[in-house]
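quick one before i forget lol
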Amino acid sequence: MSTQTLEEEKPTEVAVEPERTNTLNAANRCDHCGSQAYVSALLKTGILEFCGHCWNSYKAGIEPIAEVVLDERWKLTDTAKLDVSP
């Protein structure tokens, strides 16, 4: 009777980029002025984040070269989602 040893296959290690949530929070800061970011632009070279004011200033130059733009400026005016209960 022959004995056969089973070699365990080691899982391949893959470098996985951390998941990026599709929402901005208070930790996201404008790359220009440091205020809270409400717009995130994914470029080929990386991610730029902007507050509403700076986005208005740079939008014309960034938007044409951005692969994806996440615009959450609605958070500045959407009071229906704010919890104002006592």
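fyi Residues 5 and 11 are 19 Å apart (CA to CA).
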